[in-house]
Hints:
Elements: H1 2-11, E1 30-39, E2 54-65
Antiparallel strand pairs: 1-2
Amino acid sequence: SRFYRAWVIANGEHPRKGREMTLEIFLEGQLFEVEVELCGRDSDGKPKPAAEAYSHVKRVVSSKRV
Length: 66
């Protein structure tokens, strides 16, 4: 899944057997390089008004501990 790939990048390695994959890994003093995508269409594929458009992280490319 996309979450698994992002989590592995943030952790620096695959999870050990039995380890819970929590969101806290993304808050542990890291800088992330991400790919951002504009969400400018609704669920029907119609353009959203400019006030309703937003950006979201499409994927985590890399991370660096600081």
